[in-house]
Amino acid sequence: MSLLLKRAASLFIIPAMLLCAPTEGARAEMGAPELSASSAVLTEAESGRVLYGKDASEPMKIASTTKILTALVALELCDPDETVTVKREWTGIEGSSMYLKPDEKLTVRDLLYGLMLVSGNDAAVALACHAAGGVSEFAGLMNERAAGIGCGGSSFANPSGLDEEGHFSTARDLAAITAEAMKNDAFAEIVSAKYADVAGRELKNHNRLLWDYPGTLGVKTGYTISAGRSLVSCAERGGVRLICVTLDDRDDWADHAALYDWAFDTYARFTIKRGEQIDALLPVISGVKAFVRLAAGADASFILGRGEKYAATVNAPKFVYAAVARGGHAGEMLIEIGGETIARLPLLYGETVRIRETEKRGFWEKLKLVWFAANRYGFFRPPVYY
């Protein structure tokens, strides 16, 4: 594994090549398409790494893409198979509907299909009232959940996405919420369904990408007059799972397809395997070898664009005393792209170095011991090079 290692300790490094990531401006040169959306983001689902952004942190009205968080919170509060008896006040809600009837009995799962496939605002109210006792109470839980995901640019006032003061989010926050929701198996199964039969209703998913774009896994459409067209989707190809969000986009189907085509052509998954040696040598005192190689202590997987490189920061002791056992814990390595840490993994000793017992220490060996001891206890410090 060739990398440029930034030294957090006095390691002896075998340098490879200068590694750097394309800047935001350089991504245009990589062929990223122009979009019609007022705000957009494309992220890698696993790491949350932003591959494309256009005013992605701008607070926006998000219409029914709100229901992604509604579904996640409902699933975390309720058993999908528990029964809900529909109350009259939950019916006849403004906007899109699954046409619930008073006293009708459905499961939470049934309501979630109505929520996510045909964007039923009545399903949103039913789920909120059943799970939390009321719409405002449920909205409070939505805000708590969003904050827990790290979505500081969002505020939710209702579970449906109808326009209301204090109800907004950002493309980047929606991508993070969606990545979290897609980890829930029940959620992923529901949003990937093209059709569902719910209490005599034949529901068809509004998400056209499920038919038109191979590899689409979901997730939600949205529209109000003031918000415009909103779309959140998730697609996977070649082990790369991406999430795309466009807000206020008159040409959202085409924009999502174009972004996915570009990203799947540009990025591929890169994997570091546990036990794979890295190009770093850690000094060994009193060993039969002067240095010990380090190895990855866990698998790490991330995506790289064509011509894109990564850097790794090694956090390890300045030196170790022999004997050193292969597989022992040696420190930690941070994987960075464009200055952003996208993965961290433990480091192990990649080989065994026995203690040198048969030879007496010579002058240079003694001097090296004094040097490292002084360095360890702060008497003087060698320069650190990058």
Helix content: 25-40%
CATH homology superfamily name of the largest domain: DD-peptidase/beta-lactamase superfamily
Uncertain stretches of 5 or more adjacent residues:
1-29, 376-386
What is the overall pLDDT average? 87
Sheet having the most strands:
8 strands, mixed
By CATH, the architecture of the largest domain is named 3-Layer(aba) Sandwich
Give the tally of β-strands. 19
Distance between the termini: 18 Å
**Secondary-structure element sequence?**
EEHEEHEEHHHHHEEHEEEHEEEEEEEEH
CATH topology heading of the largest domain: Beta-lactamase
Output the number of helix runs: 10
CATH class of the largest domain: Alpha Beta
What is the total domain count?
2
Radius of gyration, taken over Cα atoms and rounded to an integer in Å? 27 Å
Task: Please tell me about this protein's structure.
The structure is a single chain. With 386 residues, this protein is of the alpha+beta class. The protein has 2 domains: 4-22 and 271-376, Peptidoglycan synthesis regulatory factor (PBP3), Domain 2, CATH 2.60.410.10; 37-250, Beta-lactamase (3-Layer(aba) Sandwich), CATH 3.40.710.10. The protein has 10 helices and 19 strands. Strands 1, 2, 13, 14, 16, 17, 18 and 19 form an 8-stranded mixed β-sheet that branches. Strands 4-3-11-10-9 form a 5-stranded antiparallel β-sheet, sandwiched between helices. The protein has a two-stranded antiparallel ribbon with strand order 5-6. A hairpin with a 2-residue loop joins β7 and β8. α2 (67-77) runs antiparallel to α3 (108-117) and α3 packs antiparallel against α4.
